[in-house]
Amino acid sequence: MIKKIVIIGGGAGGLELATDLGDKLGKRNQAEITLIDKNSYHIWKPLLHEVATGVLSEQADKIDYTTQGQQHAFQFIQGAFTDLNREEKQVIINNSNNESVSVPYDILVVAIGSTSNDFGTPGVKEHCIFLDDQNAAIRLRETLIAKFASFCSIIDENEAKDEDKIRIAIVGGGATGVELASELPHMVETFGTCGRNKMCSDLLDVSVIEATDRILPALPEKTALGITKTLQQRGIHVLTNTMITKAQSDGFYPKEGDIISADIMIWTAGVKAPDYLKDIARLESSRSNQLVVKPTLQTTRDDNIFVIGDCAYAMQDSGRASPATAQAAHQMAKICYENIINKLNNKPMKLFKYTDNGTIISLHDTAQGVVKIAGKGEMNVKGFFALMIHRLLYRMHQASLLGIVKTIRFVKASKEMYKNKFASIFTHQD
Questions:
Q1: The FAD/NAD(P)-binding domain covers which part of the protein (predicted)?
Q2: Pair (307, 222) in one structural domain
Q3: pTM here?
Q4: What is the residue-averaged pLDDT of the chain?
Q5: Could you say which of 215, 241, 270 is where a domain stops?
Q6: Quick one: 141 and 255 in the same domain?
Q7: In sequence order, which residues have a C-beta less than 8 Å from that of residue 65 and are 6 or more positions away?
Q8: Nearest-5° angle of CA 410, CA 50, CA 180?
Q9: Rounded to an integer, what distance in angstroms lies between the CA atom of residue 262 and that of residue 254?
Q10: 3-class DSSP state for residue 188?
Q11: CA dihedral of 146, 141, 41, 393, whole degrees rounded to 10
């Protein structure tokens, strides 16, 4: 009997796992591999801020799930995960026709990623834009462009005052918030060169708001301070020790101090697994809705269910869980792949141990961060060299899915498509 392996979620970990299992088992008819995702294509989540600001084209850089499945021997089903029946070994989804469908499995991998955590802050859901997936990134881009176009109309009619600016406030001083803020001035300048000559970055008022005493807590303090300085040099306000207690239509209200007025409010503070994962099918979950796994990445209550990526609560020897990053998801996918093969062959399981290889923050035309080398400590990197490493990480992700030769072709093709797409994003906006 051919085993059915179902993977829910086509993010960094899920799509890599489906591709590897398809190549290993699917092509040899040793198992049926099925990938399920609510979207029809994959965009690398660490670059969603570039989709939101028009730097990256979702059309040029997407990987189509159906095409990837045809080339790597797995089936793709578009649908949203809604429930799990462990007794019958069935996943329940709402498919693209909004129909409830049951998908049987022998081995299940949950890799559905994470969503923004508003920590129950009043008004955040109603007034803020999140950056959870490609659809959210596209909505944010459309909101930004609409605001830019509206502001242009005010300028054209000579109704703008010298102090008038487009106020954008971002809550969350992690990588997403910082990288998004760094791209916004460039986005306005590009908008100005595409027929909106009166638009420039001087018309922006961008704030990054962080509750703790500094941004980017995952980085060494010196590196984080260097990035703070770079943001400030570009006219971006960095507000630390600023706890937001509520959001309203006119801006964010901190625990202390005056309102932080904003025309566009973005929330990137904190992550959690989707709420529906909390105690789903009586599986053990954490306070942030993540499913608790053993070192083998199997859930604590069902060895037929693996969990990888942001939605996995994998405790490490340090006493802390592995972080919700693409780096961790990639490492989990590799161990999960080996453990599924071992499980099918009745061999011992491998244990997942997260390795922190460092963090690099992209700042549009430069980058800064830390690279950690086993046995040699960590190395601070900045400037063009750091930016190349950041870009290389993305290309390595593509290569793991497409292969090196196809990745080179993909890069060349996407550059041509990107040139046309990039200009069209900012022109003819009324």
A1: 3-333
A2: no
A3: 0.91
A4: 90
A5: 270
A6: yes
A7: 10, 15, 35, 37, 39, 40, 41, 42, 76, 78
A8: 160
A9: 13
A10: helix
A11: 160
Residue 251 has pLDDT above 70, yes or no: yes
Instruction: Report CA-CA distances (Å) from 56 to 22, 48, 222, 416, 420.
Output: 29, 8, 30, 12, 12
Q: Count of domains in the chain?
A: 3
pLDDT for 202 equals 83
Same domain flag for 133 and 210: yes
Nearest-angstrom CA–CA distance, 244 and 286: 24
Give ∠ CA 274-280-282 in degrees, rounded to 5.
150
For residue 25, the 8-state DSSP code is I
Which tokens in the block code for residue 248? 């309203």
Same domain, residue pair 231 and 133: yes
Mean pLDDT of 320-335: 95
The percent of residues above 90 in pLDDT, for the chain, comes to: 75
Instruction: Give the integer Cα–Cα distance in Å for 418 and 406.
Output: 17
Rounded Cα distance, 259 and 291, in Å: 37
The domain of 386 spans 359-418
Does some domain include residue 424?
no
Q: Which of 201, 206, 195 is nearest to 169 (CA)?
A: 206
pLDDT bracket for residue 194 (50, 70, 90): low
Within this chain, do residues 192 and 240 fall inside the same structural domain, yes or no?
A: yes
Residue 126 has pLDDT above 60, yes or no: yes
Q: Collapse the DSSP code of 85 into the 3-class scheme (helix H, G, I; strand E, B; otherwise coil) and give the result.
A: strand
